[in-house]
Design brief:
It is a single chain. The chain starts with a helix and ends in a 6-residue tail after the last helix. Strand 1 and strand 2 form a beta hairpin. The protein has one domain: Clam (outer membrane lipoprotein receptor (LolB), chain A). The protein is globular and about 50 Å long. It is mainly β. Strands 7-8-9-10-11-1-2-3-4-5-6-12 form a twelve-stranded mixed sheet, covered by helices on one side. It is 14% helix and 39% strand.
Length: 217
């Protein structure tokens, strides 16, 4: 189940791998998918330093809404399932270029966007534009398959707050710049590690026992 959720989250581009060492401003926001006529609330985002959390990322009808934490400095991903009080932690590749949200310099973002958003060196600054009450820097270009890409970056939080990329479109609304509790980015004490209960872990332990058998009694 966790692997399926991870794939869905990545495909919706709600999270990012590290694209700079800069730390984002602490804030919270609602994530909206806008690639349909009516905008759909896609979850709640929290940012604190190098950590980003999204609740409800990749949710679909009949499926649990996971909570996801990404640590951009440690290149780690945690997916939490509140229904079963379980979590899965894995490493992510810092060069995977999965998305483009977290930027070092909102006023000079083309070098990062050309790489992270696949704009194929076509990125150009298109001026300033208001998005949901926040003044942003707009960037435009084309993807490798020639489709238009538009990115709006908020300099206050060094974060993409609106995007149009291929079939993906969305924006952050109700942005609140304020300190975020450290506990938001930690796994609750009563959650269990789902991977430790998998058959894979049991098999690995069996192989270790064969290599280093315990003394016979």
């Amino acid at each position: 189940m966790f692997q399926t959720l991870a794939a869905r989250i990545f495909s919706l581009a709600l999270l990012c791998t590290v694209c700079s060492a800069a730390l984002a401003q602490e804030f919270s926001a609602d994530v909206f998918n806008t690639n349909t006529k009516d905008a759909v609330n896609g979850g709640k985002l929290y940012a604190k330093g190098s950590k980003i959390r999204v609740d409800g990322a990749g949710a679909s009808a009949g499926a649990p809404a996971p909570m996801v934490i990404v640590d951009l400095e440690k290149n780690s991903l945690i997916i939490m399932d509140a229904t079963n009080h379980a979590y899965m932690k894995s490493d992510i590749d810092a060069e995977a270029n999965l998305s483009f949200f977290h930027l070092a310099d909102a006023n000079n973002a083309c070098p990062a966007l050309n790489k992270m958003a696949g704009m194929q060196n076509s990125c150009k600054k298109s001026g300033n534009e208001g998005v949901n009450g926040h003044q942003t820097v707009k960037y435009s270009g084309k993807s490798e398959d020639g489709k238009p890409v538009q990115i709006w970056v908020d300099p206050e939080v060094n974060f993409v707050v609106k995007w149009l990329k291929g079939g993906e479109a969305g924006e952050l609304r109700n942005i609140k710049v304020e300190p975020q509790a450290a506990s938001l980015f930690e796994v609750p004490a009563d959650y269990h590690n789902a991977l430790k209960e998998s058959g894979k872990d049991a098999g690995e332990k069996e192989e270790e026992d064969k290599k280093d058998p315990s003394p016979q009694q």
